[in-house]
Specification:
By secondary structure, the protein is mostly beta strands. The protein is about 5% helix and about 45% strand. The protein has one helix and 28 strands. Strands 2, 5, 7, 10, 11, 13, 14 and 15 form an eight-stranded mixed beta sheet that branches. Strands 16, 18, 19, 21, 23, 24, 26 and 27 form an eight-stranded antiparallel beta sheet that branches.
Length: about 350
């Protein structure tokens, strides 16, 4: 006699097997982003244009690196965003309990000219540059992993945002720029979304923070001459001597009365705000040569040297509340013995910068 298996027995076991399969599947849900708030605004501070197209970084509190002679009047601050996330899902384990979330920011922001501010994330433990799927064009992203396996455990993250501003023109007008951008935080699971709409996040909707960066650019400094440095008409003697812009002489030099003499005078114009410092400098002397176009006979005459100095204050000066400062320059001309008759002139430069 052959033994036949009881078909009902087999069915019962198949039924039990099929019934227990769902109990082996772990529930897997994304992290939930519960808050996305601004702690510190990204700020480049107060900026003075340089002598060429310049740029500033925001890697430290002192704004570095700086190029193009750009001058900073106060320190920079990094942007800082506070994001709170928590694990979501009733079945939390070492394998699937540490949930992720993704943060998107634009890679560039238009501040002064098109796409002149580049953004990036600072280093955050537990976060890596997003790779798969890649962020949308024009955006960068990082993926962060909660450190806790506990369900519904809140974890707060401080996310630094660093900027670099370029295309700061020497002819820049005074203006404060506050362009806006968004920080988009999405909960995600095995694959983080590359969507820029937080309602398309895996699991519960994420959070979008609308924020801005800031930079205050000062008006470019300009210098306008209002009066030339003049030594007037003189007679050279048989010995060397000097004369200054007031007509005071030494040695064999004789000042002809009634001729025009004056110190050099310049108006420095810049940011119309009281107490703005700037730097002022000029060469210590200038060479005066005879203008043979006016006096042909002096083409072979030796040049004369004039020592230059500011009548009051060099180095760091301060603009007044109207954004201007009047600068006067004194000079002492050294005249050679029996200096040839002629009209002598020279050119010197006054340098100003913030």
């Amino acid at each position: 006699m052959k033994f036949l298996p009881d078909s009902s027995f087999l069915k019962r076991h198949l039924f039990c097997l099929l019934f227990t399969i769902p109990l082996l599947i772990s529930e897997s849900k994304a992290a939930t982003v519960t808050s996305n708030n601004l702690t510190t605004q990204l700020n480049f501070g107060r900026v003075g244009p340089g002598s060429s197209i310049g740029s500033i970084g925001n890697t430290t509190s002192t704004c570095s690196p700086v190029t193009g002679g750009v001058v900073l009047f106060n320190g920079c601050t990094r942007g800082l965003v506070s994001i709170t996330s928590k694990n979501a899902g009733s079945n939390v384990s070492v394998a699937n309990g540490k949930k992720k979330f993704r943060i998107h920011i634009p890679s560039t922001v238009t501040t002064i000219t098109t796409n002149d501010t580049t953004l990036r994330f600072g280093t955050v433990t537990g976060c890596v540059a997003a790779a798969s799927p890649a962020p949308p064009s024009g955006y960068i992203a990082i993926d962060c992993t909660n450190t806790s396996n506990t369900n519904n455990a809140n974890q707060t993250w401080s996310i630094p945002i660093i900027g670099s501003l370029s295309n700061i023109s020497p002819t820049q007008n005074s203006q404060t720029y506050t362009p806006s951008y968004s920080v988009i935080a999405c909960g995600c699971n095995n694959g983080c979304p590359n969507s820029l709409t937080h309602n398309k996040c895996t699991g519960n909707p994420g959070k979008t923070l609308a924020t801005s960066l800031s930079v205050q650019l000062y008006k470019t400094l300009s210098v306008v001459e209002s009066s030339s440095l003049k030594f007037g008409t003189i007679v050279a003697g048989s010995t060397t001597g000097t004369i200054n812009q007031s007509g005071a002489t030494t040695g064999g030099v004789i000042a002809i009365s009634g001729s025009s003499r004056s110190p050099g005078a310049f108006s420095v114009n810049g940011e119309p705000s009281a107490g703005i410092p700037y730097n002022l400098s000029l060469p210590s002397n200038v060479s005066l040569s005879c203008d043979s176009g006016i006096t042909p006979s002096c083409s072979a005459a030796p040049s004369m040297l004039a020592n230059l100095s500011f009548s009051s204050g060099s180095g760091t000066r301060v603009l007044n509340s109207s954004g201007s400062d009047l600068v006067t320059i004194n000079g002492t001309l050294m005249v050679g013995a029996n200096q040839l008759v002629g009209n002598y002139k020279g050119i010197y430069s006054v340098f100003v910068n913030y």
